[in-house]
Each structure stands twice: as C-alpha cells, then as structure tokens.
Amino acid sequence: MSESVIQVDKLSLTFQTNDGPVHALSDIDLDIQQGDFVSLIGPSGCGKTTLLRVIADLEKATGGNITVNGVSPEAARQARGYGYVFQAAGLYPWRTIAKNVSLPLEIMGLDSATRKERVARNLALVNLEGFEKKYPWQLSGGMQQRASIARALAVEPDLLLMDEPFGALDEIVRDHLNEQLLALWAKTNKTVVFVTHSIPEAVYLSSHIVVMSPRPGRIQDIVVSDLPRERTLDIRETPEFLRIANRVREGLRAGHSYDDVES
Amino acid sequence: MSDTGFKNSILPVTAVCLAILLIWSIASVWLNTPWQKDVFKRAGAENVGAVEFVKATMAQERPKLPSPQQVAVEVYNTTVKKKVTSKRSLIYHSKITLSSALLGFAMGTLLGIVLSVAIVYNRALRKSLMPWIITSQTIPILAIAPMIILVLNSVGVQGLVPKAFISMYLSFFPIVVGMVKGLNSPDIGHMDLMRTYSATNWQSFWKLRLPSSLPYLFTSMKIAIAISIVGAVVAELPTGAVAGLGARLLAGSYYGQTIQIWSALVMASILAGGLVWIVDIIGRLVTKRMGLNHA
Questions:
Q1: ipTM score of the complex?
Q2: Which of A25, A40, B206, B229 lies in the 20 to 30 Å Cα band around B76?
C-alpha cells in the first residue's frame, strides 16, 4: 500500500496558442500510491484532463518531473503500464464487442487462446456476457462505455486512467456503473486516476480527491477520504459523506472566487 | 435497405428516362427537318402529312441526330444479331474497351492507394506530391493521350497496356483524394487509443486507418470506374480506330454514320453505368459486413 505509482513534482504545461501562452498546468505536486482511487475534480479548463493525458503520455509536460510506475510516462506507455478509458466509448464501429475488447491484445501480440480467455473474463466483469457478437451501434451508451472499460481492463494494467467515463450517461446508469467500478477496485487493488466534475461521484468513489482550479490549472486542495473501502450507494446519505463533499465544494469555490460561482 | 431504395427509385428513374427520350425525339425531328424538306422537295412530293413527315425525319439514313428508336434498333442489331467475334458487333468492341478500362481501373486504384498512403504517412511527400497530382488532372486528356500512346509505342509497349495507362491516369486521381481523406478520417479519440497501446504505425494503419477509409474508397472507386471507361474510349481515338468503342465513334464520324456514333455512345454509358452499379453493390456488401452501415 505504500508504493508510489505516480509521482508528480512541480509539473507545468504551457500550450502556445495564437492568443499567447495558455498555462494549462502550473506547479502540480502529487503522489499517488498503489491501490489509491484518486479523483481529479474541477471546473472546465482546470487542467484535470490535461494532467491525466500527461500521465498517459498523450501530452508532454513543459516543466517539472513526473514518473509513472517509476519510469517516464513515455516508457510507461511503451510498457503498456496503464489502461485508459476515454470520455467517449470510442469503440471501433466495424468490430464486434468481443473484437473491440480484443484489439489491445492483438496489438500486444498475445496468442488467440489468451485473447479469448481475457475477452471473456473482462466482458463478464462488466456484465456484458452474451454481447460478444454485437456491434457497438446495437448497444446502449452505458453498455458501450462498459465495453470500453472491459477493453482497458483486458490489458491487465495495475493502473487505470479514466477521463470522465460516465460523463455522458444518465444518472441511473451512472450510479450503477459507479457501484460496479467500486466493486472492481475493491476486488483488484488497482490504482485508479479518475477525472470527473461531479462532487458526489468523486466522493463516492475516491480514497483521495484532488480539487483543481483553472487559470492557471493548479491543485487547490487534496481531500483524503476516511470512508471505508467497501461502500454502498447509501453512504451518500451519511454525515461523513456530506462533510467530505462540503470540503470539496469549498475547495472548488475558493479556486475561482474571482469567477462566476459554479454550483 | 437497398431493396426498398430500389423500389422507391423506379418511378423517378423511369420518369427521367421518359423525359430524356421525349426531348431527344423532339430534338431529332427538329434537327432533321431541313434535310427532310429538301428530300421531299427534290422528290416533288407535295402535301406530305405531318405524321408522315415526322416519321420520315426519324428514319433518315444519315440523320443529324438519330432518333432514339434508330439507335435502339442499331444497338439491338449490332449486339444480339451479330456474332460476338464479328468486327461489326458492339459486344466485340465493348469487350476491348472494357478490358483496357478494367485494367486501367485496377492499376489506377492500386496507384491511388499507394500514393495516398505515402501522402498520409510522409509530411514531405504530402507537400510535394499533392500539387503535382492536381496538376496532372488539369491537362486535357485529349491532348496528352496521343502522346502517352506514342511514347509507350516507341518503347515497345503496345496493345492493351497503353490504353489502360490513360484510364489509370484518369482514375487514380479520385482514389488518391478519397483515400487521403479516408485514411485521415479516424477521430482523435480512436487515434489516441492506438497511442495508449503504443501501437506501431503499421498496426494503426491496418487496424484503424484502413478500415475507416473503406467507405471513402468505394465512393472514389465509383467515380474512378466510370472515368476509366472514358479514358479507354479516348485512348482508342488516336490509335487509328482499329477496335473498341472509341474506334466505332471515330469510324462513324469518318463516314458520317451518326447512328453508329450514337449507338457506341449509348453502349459506353450502359457499360459505365453497369460498372458503377456493380462497385456500389460490392461497397454496400463490404460495409454491411463490417457493420458500418449504421455507424
């Protein structure tokens, strides 16, 4: 439980645009341990997705240091050290669900027996047995997102990076997937970095909540949750839950008091 | 889906066909009237009835514009009634044009795909090749076709291949343009996914870019195959009218055989239309099999 998976030290990222430099990330310090569930929360433009993309080596930092699994993000990516779930399910429309989950495994060069076994196991994990031969358009949005989670899990990474995976889904489906994700996390002791802009979702899922604020994108507060690892949706009614949610909300307010107040 | 589409399109297509035939008939009567007046005048025939006159304008031996039924009869006579091996059979000539068009289409498609892959994967080639590819299509094909055939003849390439070159010259262009767009069509999320898997260029080409580009490829191929027929016909003109639909056109114009010219034209368009239709069907089947029709 004490091993650092992600270490971020004075990280900054500045995009050069036609309107001058944009400070997407500024002076980020963060230490994520094995088995943590870390949520990055903040308003649009606070750099939460950018930070996740830097961890995944989809963007390059312009200053500071970052290690993922003890190596550079690029080396971690090349070692397939993480699974990434995008905001959009992003399933390939010409591949069936099973074929979509199998895609990273084909790229990794696994043999077909291993692929088959992992596809079946991970589809079962997200309750999609029986949909192997369906095409993405035949599934609802929630099922497509579950398939994309299965696809990320099939790589069998210890680190799962999730960028607002449930952002486009309705409340009921979202609750259900949150429960499933939490059960999965409790079962596997994976490290999860989860981007969201929903306070209840962040508090319900996380062991650590990183509150970020924009212009420049920076860390406002890191809230450590003392909720038990095993949680049900009912926990959202407890005083402890509301206390943590309040602290997150205060952090968000403090972060852009000079701006329009966001709920 | 294609069935209902076909049923729904019968009425409009028939209506348009009838309209074209009507305009064609009127035009042929109108254009052939002066000559017909002369004929009756020389024959001393007077008080010719309107119906008889119109009938006569549509049945001249060398009309300025043959009537639809004259062309239909000529096409029938030179396809069904002639032996396929006869030099007067339109089927014989169509086969010659078709084979060079298809060879040119295949070469053009291959060249187009190779060029588009080079353009998509190489920045330098993207900047340097594309202007030349566009320039190539601004040269009138009628001007360059005889030169290509002459040059190829002088290095000993004869027969089918020089004609196929003209078809290739025309047909590679829509393939390049469509495939460059198609290979670049995957959205950023799909590309990022490949990056998170640290997929090689070859893997992301084979598993993402190529499948994404197939609908674009088939659209391009429909244009390319029609244009291949045009290329083959044009290529037959400067070869001295030996064989092929282009040769029929040229021979017809030497001897003022307008009916022959028009039947060759009709045959060429039937051929092109049929080929486009076949490519369309294949495209539909492939994309349906890929589960793409609903994407």
A1: 0.84
A2: B229
